[in-house]
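Subject: Sanity check before I submit

Could someone independently write out the structure tokens for this chain? I want to compare against mine line by line before I put it in a report. The sequence has 315 residues.
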Amino acid sequence: MVDCNSELNKFYNEKVRLGNLWNTLGKYRDINLDRLKNGLWNNNSPAYSDTISQGSYSMKTIVQHINNDYDIDVGVVFDNSKIGNMTSKDIKDMVYRAIQDDRFQKAPEVLKNCVRVYYSEGHHVDMAIYRKKDDRQELASSDWEESNPEEIVEWFNNAVISKSPDDSNGRQLRRIVRFLKFWSISRNAWDMPSGLILTILAVECYVPIKARDDQSLYETLKKIKNRLQYNKSILNPLNLKEIANSDKHKRRVENLYDKLRALFDEYLSELELTKDKKMALMIWGKFFNSDFFDECIKNLSCSTIISTPSKPWRI
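---
Independent answer below. Compare away.
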């Protein structure tokens, strides 16, 4: 396989990872926590007792988004002794009232598993509400459901450390997850699985190859495709319960498999055959739906096609 590692690393650093934007998004999270704290006080509502760092922000797997549609997750924990017999709906409504602000162009919204705050730039802050009841932590969903999102973050961070063959630039497994998530949002028309489902699949199918992110990504993608061909069940790594059990999630997992299968059939598998670096970079550009690699191709001093693709196809 032609070595395009340096070009993919450049693409990763410039187009995939957030860089300083990660800190900016964290400020939006903190601003809304302050807004919630003050709003609860002004409404004579119980104060929250703790916060939980959760989701892709905590895993550091958020990727750049062309529409600035960044999902910033934060968990807000209330002590059960302070909220009494409030239902999951009651407490989400309480949080909704507390975070009202006349400066919002779009009002916050109560969703099934969170209260969402929208920003005109495109991103949003999702506040998941929990109650601490003895040694149990429960999420305010359709009803109260036991949930420990910080354990998912710990599971992923441990996997990154134990599986990656390096310790630089976030480590390889985290980079592979980001590549996969970036690809999944590279076409507006696609309806792909959640970031958590993509992360679980990437960790399960990850193929570590030191100093070759391009090859690791290719082999991981191929392994995910082959896995989904025979098994489309996605299990929570903590309790091994199915998490893709709704029709929506099942459809999105099916879409993921269909896209990977189609891209491998159309052109992606040619990465294993071609010896021409220009051709390989064209394939990666096509895969990520990006013109970033055009400049890389121009900068190549020469390119000699040694092998011809085994079937007619076009980039």
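---
OP: Matches mine. For the report I'm noting this point. Confidence is low (pLDDT under 50) at residues 302-315.
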